[in-house]
Amino acid sequence: MSYAFAAQLNSLLAALILLTAFAMLVQRRMYALLHLFAWQGLFLSISTAVVGFAAQSHHLYISSVLTLAIKVILLPYILHVLIRKLKIHREVETIVNVPTTMLIGIALVIFSYHLTAPIRELSTLMTKSTLAVALATVMLGLLMMITRRHAVTQIIGFLAMENGLFFAATSATYGMPLVVELGVALDILIAAFIFGIFFFHINTTFDSLDVDQMARLKEED
Amino acid sequence: MIITPATILSLSFAVLLLVVLLALFLRSHQRLLITAGYSLMAVAALLTAGAGVWAVSRGTIAQVILPLGLPDLPVHLRLDHLSGFFLAVIGLLAFFVSVYSVGYVKGFLGHRQVTSLVIFSSLFLAGMFLVVLSDDAFIFLVSWEIMAASSYFLVLFEDERIENRRAALLYLVVAHVGAIAILLSFGVMAGLATDYHGFEGYTFDAMRETDLPAGWATAAFLLAFFGFSAKAGVVPLHVWLPEAHPVAPSNVSALMSGVMLKTAIYGIIRVVFDLIGDFPVWWGALVLIFGLISAVVGMLSAVMQQDLKKLLAYSSVKNIGIILIGIGLSMIFSSSEMVLLAALALIAALYHTLNHAMYKGLLFMGAGAVLHATHERNMENMGGLIRDLPWTAALFLVGCVSISALPPFNGFVSEWLTYQAFLLSPALESPILNLLIPLGAALLALSGALAAAGFVKAFGITFLGHRRGTHHHRVHEVGWAMRAGMLLAAITCLGLGVFPTYLIHWMDPITEQLVGGKIASSAAGFGWMWLTPIAAERASYSAPVAFVGILAVVVVTYLILHTRPGTIHRVPLWDCGFEKITSRMQYTATSFSMPLRRILGFLFSVKEEVKPFPPGAHPAFPERLQYRLRVRDRFWGWLYKPVIDVSFWISRKVGKLQQGRIQVYLIYSFVTIIVLLLFL
Predict the structure, then answer these.
(1) B625: part of which helix (H) or strand (E)?
(2) Partner residue facing B663 (CB), from A111, A146, A216
């Protein structure tokens, strides 16, 4: 596999990650959303491995395997169990309608390209063109958290944001030091457990996982 | 090992730390904990006082850099004359109060755990010692906060009463507003010391060497003055003082009123004379004006009080005022290049600092003894206690005489020196100051007269007459430890009053360090008997002669009355033919201050109402009259309430941002990120 081919492959994977991010933004079914998240993780994992191969930095292989294990298998599995236990596979309601969300998403992607333009000119890495996609994925994840009502979708949005950050790290600097990545992976795992526990409690307290219900927690004056 | 003040001080800190550890291990042996803890604190305090006295008289400056604190920002400590003096003041009173506490704190046995009291007392002392030893802004603020936080917990000791919690919170808020101002002031000085490059400016040495531009120097001074005034209780920032001091346990009030306020005085002197060093005349005038306001308003408020400890707390405001007057005059003289007069005024301020620590400590300990014996703070329910508490009464009287500035006790010396500084002010060039300063002297005289009235009231209503209270349980004299603490303070008051020349000689290096002048040679120009501040033809006072004279008159009178039989008759009191005298027919605390309330009541918001009792009775034939009086500080309504209202208003407006919906919060962060990305 030549260097140029690796770069091409990486760009393709970046495009796929962006595509899944958009798909997640509009997907209304919970299970489908989860599968999209797993796909995004898979693309991310492959992309990490490709970058690791092309840049000869072998610790990226470990990152790639970690991503595969946690973001493609473990987290989707945990969330899957959660969804089944809490019986929340019905459709996800959005606050803003789909076309508007898409338009905002497109604007964010353009904005990301605009922002990373100066970096693209300075950088010599082969992954320099994917930095904009990484930034866009972070923003789309945040956008997803804002436009959804359901607590589980917000968590998926949060995890998608983390995917974006991870991707940004690989594309900007060929990955963070391994120690940091191990720490982040562990954090994500623990976060998922904490979310799970909290969901059970929220569900028993409010009989729903609609975060609008939590507006009641505000102090009244 | 060579023994120096610094080694003694480290020993003292080690002892204080030991007390904290001891308190943790002796939780189940409260009685032993009190005896051991406070005895060790007394030892530590005495060591510190000794080190302080030695440091002042030895006249060298010791500096240490400890590799503690943040990386690259080590802790600087410095023991010079000024900090030595304050160490001596704090240590001496802390010694007396610790001895006293051995007895006083035992009063809590059986009611509540005293472990926290011991721990925080020890930390409080360590905090105060560290404040005056600090030689960089960082350790200064850290120890300042140790002091504030531990005293907060001490005020909160009896936390089941809502007034205590309220007072402690108010104290904490004012202390922190002050601390922020001090922080900003140090920030200005430290920043300009390095032109905002690097952090080396945080040492006091760097600040000393920097010549601040006039505008920034003024900003630093005003911030520091504001911050330290909040701690010292300068009017109008004094509102926390009469709330917090009365509710704290009395040994704590003695320390807070006696020496904690003095750390703020130390801060003002340190920043103005040492760190900034070069200042215009109007700074001194500003300090002088606030000192005068505090002196008059503080004492006037004190006279109005019915609560013994509140009266003492307000009189602390007055005394801080007098100290500030001395500092203000010293600043005026110093910026007019009159070093001798500047030294005189500064000596007056420092002397008053020492004196106030001693007699206010004594008075709070006395009030604590009364509280201990009667469980009563309200003077209206006291009276006649001199028969049950002869020791306490006599020692409290010493405190009252000292604070009313009567010879031969110490209050007179320092107030007299302050008047001397006032009277020498015509030497100044500025005509406006020449006009205003005599007015200040008149105000100081007014506050002195009010102080006399206030302490006649405090002593008379509490100890003389008949018991007014409703419950008549037997009152016992307090134990030996409490008496010993008070006795030591009383003896110190007398000593400081009789031998002022020695004290001034001892304090001379301080003024030489700060304002470049010394007065010991002229003050003791006629031997140790005569105190002649500047020149004998201007003014002179011989404390020993006054003491011996007064003593002689008292002894002779006593002998005349008690040696010849028949000169003293004990007969029933003339009761105007009313036949049945009750304890209600005597002066009360409220009636004592009535004339002053009539004349100067406009300075307060006074609410007075007289209602017949029972409520339905015909006004002409009431069974009894119900009299209700409420005197409140006007400053609360003028200054604090608007601030509180505005902050509530702003909070309500800002509260609208809190929608409680998670999406809205996310949008906030999203917008913030986008905006930051766009503009940075």
Answers:
(1) strand B624-633
(2) A146
Q: Residue B76 and residue B55: Cα distance in Å, rounded? A: 17
Query: What percent of chain B has a predicted confidence (pLDDT) above 90?
Result: 45
Task: Please report the ipTM that was assigned to this predicted complex.
Answer: 0.81
Cα–Cα distance, A43 to B509 (Å, whole number): 78
- Indicate the SS3 state at residue B14: helix
Of B661, B666, B673, the CB nearest to A145: B666
Beta carbons of A217 and B652 less than 8 Å apart: no
Distance CA B399, CA B567 (A): 31
What phi-psi label fits residue A173: left (phi over 0), alpha (psi between -120 and 50 degrees) or beta? alpha
Question: Are B661 and A211 in contact (CB < 8 Å)?
Answer: yes
Core vs surface per residue B284-317: b (16+ CB within 10 A) or e: bbbbbbbbbbbbbbbbbbbbbbbbbbbbbbbbbb
**Residue A155 burial (CB < 10 Å; 0-12/13-18/19+)?**
buried
What pLDDT digit, counting tens, does each position of A106-116 carry? 999 998 888 88
Cβ within 8 Å, pair A146-B655: no
H or E segment at B609? strand B604-613
Residues of A with a Cβ under 8 Å from any B Cβ are 95, 111, 115, 139, 142-143, 145-147, 149, 154, 211-212, 214-219, 221
* Cα–Cα distance measured from residue A84 to residue A76, given in angstroms and rounded to the nearest whole number: 12
The nearest CA of chain A is from the CA of B149 a distance in Å of 29
Alpha-carbon dihedral angle through residues A39, A43, A49, A53, given to the nearest 10 degrees = 160
Report helix, strand or coil for B615. Answer: coil
Across the interface, whether the CB atoms of B670 and A115 are under 8 A apart is answered no
**B480-512: string of b/e by CB count within 10 Å (b at 16+)?**
ebbbebbbbbbebbbebbbbbbebbbbbbbbbb
The predicted structure's pLDDT at residue B438? 83
pLDDT above 70: percentage of residues in chain B: 99
| Closest approach of A114 to chain B, Cα-based (Å) | 10
Of B486, B491, B489, B499, nearest to B547 by C-alpha is: B499
Nearest to B661 among A143, A212, A221 (CB): A212
Which of the four pLDDT bands, split at 50, 70 and 90, describes residue B471? Answer: low
Query: Which of the two residues, B178 and B575, has the higher pLDDT score?
Result: B178
On whether the CB atoms of residues B540 and B567 are closer than 8 A, the answer is no
Q: Which residue has the tokens 């302080």?
A: B52
Alpha-carbon distance of B631 to B629, in angstroms, equals 7
What pLDDT digit, counting tens, does each position of A37-96 carry? 999 999 999 998 988 888 888 888 888 898 899 889 988 998 888 888 877 766 666 677
Count of CB atoms situated within 10 Å of the CB of B323: 30
Residue B630: band (very low, low, confident or very high) from pLDDT cuts 50, 70, 90: confident
Between chain A and chain B, how many beta carbons pairs sit less than 8 Å apart?
Answer: 38
Domain chopping of chain B, boundaries: 281-565, 589-634, 637-679
Is pLDDT above 70 for B464? yes
In b/e form, how buried is each residue of A64-95, taking b as 16+ CB within 10 angstroms?
bebbbebbbebbbebbeebbeebebeeebebe
Distance CA B353, CA B361 (A): 12
In angstroms, the separation between the Cα of residue A212 and the nearest Cα of chain B is 6
**Coil, helix or strand at residue B627:** strand
